[in-house]
Design a protein that fits this description.
Blueprint: E1 12-16, H1 45-57, E2 62-66, H2 76-84, E3 91-96, H3 101-111, E4 115-119, H4 125-132, H5 137-149, E5 156-161, H6 170-179, E6 183-188, H7 212-218, E7 225-226, E8 237-240, E9 247-251, E10 264-267, E11 272-274, E12 283-284, H8 286-290, H9 296-304
Parallel strand pairs: 1-2, 1-10, 2-3, 3-4, 4-5, 5-6, 6-9
Antiparallel strand pairs: 7-8, 8-9, 10-11, 11-12
Helix pairs in contact: 1-2, 2-3, 3-5
């Protein structure tokens, strides 16, 4: 097993397969994009499979594929098929903006993908175009339906809550769980490379954050009931509208941070192991992979370097990468 210095068992690996994305979400990527990694610096599918195989041999049980937007990388089903063949890997999931999901959902499910998370910050088509800088809500809805038809369930819908933009929609988003067995999750805005002016209609940098405690007050009319925590729901604290088939979760890295229960490690598209999303520490495995070396020492070093917790309250922020370049 992979146990860190604070006696946390690490069982979950998030793998960014690309730093490219077909959206420009305001909290994730600058409007003019980021400097893309050359193809030669991005891990091949074979290299990703090698890292995951090594991690599973040490106790990793679940893998989530992220980006950028993972569906913009060609032949993603090839990678999923290779990962699905690794003995001991219990689950493969994927986080997507949903824009290409209608096209690929069935193929990915057949390759071995188990479930998906879809970013859905608003139910208003115009506001959706604004926050994504050009995305189509209608096309994302078709993708969600295609994923449901392909059996990529339970479907999780992630909404980053921004004051003055979508905080008025929390009730509407939560109400989706009355009619669908979906998991709607409200996420606190994280200061990862996004502390700049986003333009209209977004508020100033210091006025955007909505703490989880305020989110719960906004949702109080629904009479939410706590749901017992289950494996696979990560850091989300879950609730249910009485009688609803779906659930509502809150991910609160700042308002009620969950570092003491962190069980994850991240692999960036360019081959860096990142022990914590909110700390800039990274350990490269790319060069070791390409010379045929053993990456287990790097894997163990990354676990040893996991911090006890982030230091956002002390205004120590991650600065080396944008969120799109980490994979969330």
């Amino acid at each position: 097993m992979l146990i860190d210095r604070y006696n946390r068992e690490i069982t979950y690996l998030r793998v960014s397969v690309t730093d490219r994305c077909n959206f420009r979400c305001v909290y994730c990527m600058p409007e003019d994009g980021i400097l893309r990694k050359p193809h030669s610096e991005v891990l091949s599918y074979e290299e990703i499979t090698s890292v995951v195989s090594a991690a599973v041999s040490q106790g990793i049980k679940r893998v989530r594929l992220t980006g950028g937007e993972p569906l913009v990388r060609r032949d993603l089903a090839v990678l999923i098929r290779a990962l699905a063949a690794i003995p001991g890997l219990d689950e493969i999931s994927l986080t997507t903006n949903g824009f290409l999901l209608e096209r690929f959902a069935a193929e990915l499910a057949q390759a071995g993908l188990n479930r998906i998370n879809v970013s859905l910050d608003t139910l208003d088509p115009e506001k959706f175009r604004t926050v994504t800088r050009g995305g189509s809500l209608e096309q994302v809805w078709r993708g969600i339906r295609a994923a449901e038809a392909a059996g990529l369930t339970p479907i999780k819908l992630n909404a980053v809550v921004i004051r003055g933009f979508n905080d008025s929609e929390l009730l509407s988003l939560a109400e989706l769980t009355r009619d669908h067995p979906w998991q709607v999750r409200f996420i606190e805005l994280m200061p990862v490379g996004n502390q700049v002016d986003w333009g209209k209609p977004f508020p100033a940098v210091n006025d955007r954050y909505v703490p989880v405690q305020e989110m719960r007050i906004l949702l109080a009319p629904l009479g939410l009931q706590a749901v017992e925590k289950t494996n696979g729901n990560g850091p989300a604290k879950e609730f249910r509208i009485p009688g609803a088939p779906g659930t509502i979760g809150f991910i609160s890295p700042i308002g009620e941070h969950f570092c003491e229960d962190c069980n994850r490690l991240r692999l960036t598209a360019d081959g860096k192991l990142r022990p914590c999303l909110l700390v800039d520490t990274e350990i490269s495995v790319r060069e070791t992979l390409r010379r045929g070396g053993d990456i287990l020492p790097a894997l163990r070093e990354a676990i040893d370097l996991k911090p006890e917790g982030h230091e956002l309250e002390e205004q120590i922020l991650p600065r080396l990468r944008k969120m799109v370049d980490i994979g969330g």
